[in-house]
C-alpha cells in the first residue's frame, strides 16, 4: 500500500489539497460578499422588516430558492458558458470557483436571513424609536447581534463547499476530488481514494472546529 505513494504522488496530493483550499476559500469569500448583503436584504424586506416589501421579497427569494434547489452537478454543466466567459475555460481550479460561488451565495443568504430573524425585534424597535436609520439598524443592531449565527452559517457553507469542490473534480475541476477520480477510481488505486477521503474528513473537522471556536468567542462577547 505504502509503495503506491511515490514522491510524485505525494507532491500531487499537496498540490491537489492546495487547489481545494483555493476553490473553497475564494468561492466562500466571494459567496459571502454576495450572500450576506442578500440575506440582509431578504430580512429587511420580509414581514416585520424595516423595509417591508412583500412583492420584492418574493421575487428575490424565488430566485434564491431556484438556485438553491438546483443540484450542484447540474449547475456545473448549466453555467459552463458563463464559466468560460469569466475564466476563459470550463475546466480547472478557477473554472470550478464560478459554480461554487453561485451555489454558495444563495445558501449563505438564507442562513444569514435565518440568523437575523433570531435578533430580538424589540432591539430594532428601540433603535427606530431613537431615530436610527436603516443603515444604522443593520450595522449597529442586526449584524452585531446575529454575528455568532452568521459565523456558524458561514462554517456550514465552507463545509458544504468542500464536498462540492470534490464533486467539481469529477468534471476536471481539480483538487482532491479530481485526484480521487483519476487515481483512485480510473487507475484502480483504492488506497488513494481512501487517502483522499481521510484528508477531506480531517479538513472538514478542522473547519468545523475553527468555526465553532469563533462562534463561542463571539457569543461570550455579546
UniProtKB/TrEMBL annotation:
As for subcellular location, the record says:
Cell membrane
Q: Give the primary localization class.
A: membrane
What's the name of the protein?
D-methionine transport system permease protein
Mark the transmembrane ranges: 20-42, 63-83, 89-109, 150-172, 192-215
Q: Which family does it belong to?
A: Belongs to the binding-protein-dependent transport system permease family.
- Record-linked InterPro entries: AA_ABC_Transporter_Permease (IPR051322), MetI-like (IPR000515), MetI-like_sf (IPR035906)
Superkingdom: Bacteria
**What membrane topology does this protein have?**
Multi-pass membrane protein
Q: What is the source species?
A: Rhodoferax ferrireducens
Task: Quote the CDD domains the UniProt record gives.
Answer: TM_PBP2
Which intervals hold domain ABC transmembrane type-1? Answer: 17-211
- What keywords would UniProt list here? Cell membrane, Membrane, Transmembrane, Transmembrane helix, Transport
Amino acid at each position: 500500500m505504502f509503495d503506491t505513494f511515490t514522491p510524485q504522488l505525494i507532491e500531487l496530493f499537496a498540490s491537489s489539497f492546495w487547489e481545494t483550499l483555493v476553490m473553497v476559500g475564494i468561492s466562500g469569500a466571494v459567496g459571502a460578499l454576495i450572500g450576506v448583503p442578500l440575506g440582509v436584504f431578504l430580512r429587511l424586506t420580509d414581514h416585520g422588516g424595516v423595509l417591508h416589501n412583500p412583492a420584492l421579497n418574493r421575487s428575490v427569494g424565488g430566485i434564491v430558492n431556484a438556485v438553491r434547489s438546483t443540484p450542484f452537478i447540474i449547475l456545473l454543466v448549466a453555467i459552463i458558458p458563463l464559466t468560460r466567459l469569466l475564466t476563459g475555460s470550463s475546466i480547472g481550479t478557477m473554472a470550478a470557483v464560478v459554480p461554487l460561488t453561485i451555489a454558495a451565495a444563495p445558501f449563505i443568504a438564507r442562513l444569514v436571513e435565518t440568523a437575523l430573524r433570531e435578533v430580538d425585534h424589540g432591539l430594532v424597535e428601540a433603535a427606530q424609536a431613537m431615530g436610527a436609520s436603516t443603515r444604522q439598524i443593520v450595522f449597529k443592531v442586526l449584524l452585531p447581534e446575529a454575528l455568532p449565527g452568521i459565523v456558524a452559517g458561514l462554517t456550514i457553507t465552507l463545509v458544504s463547499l468542500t464536498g462540492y469542490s470534490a464533486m467539481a473534480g469529477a468534471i476536471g475541476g481539480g483538487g482532491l476530488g479530481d485526484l480521487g477520480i483519476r487515481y483512485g477510481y480510473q487507475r484502480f488505486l483504492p488506497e488513494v481514494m481512501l487517502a483522499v477521503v481521510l484528508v477531506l474528513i480531517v479538513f472538514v473537522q478542522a473547519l468545523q472546529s475553527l468555526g465553532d471556536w469563533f462562534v463561542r468567542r463571539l457569543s461570550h462577547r455579546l
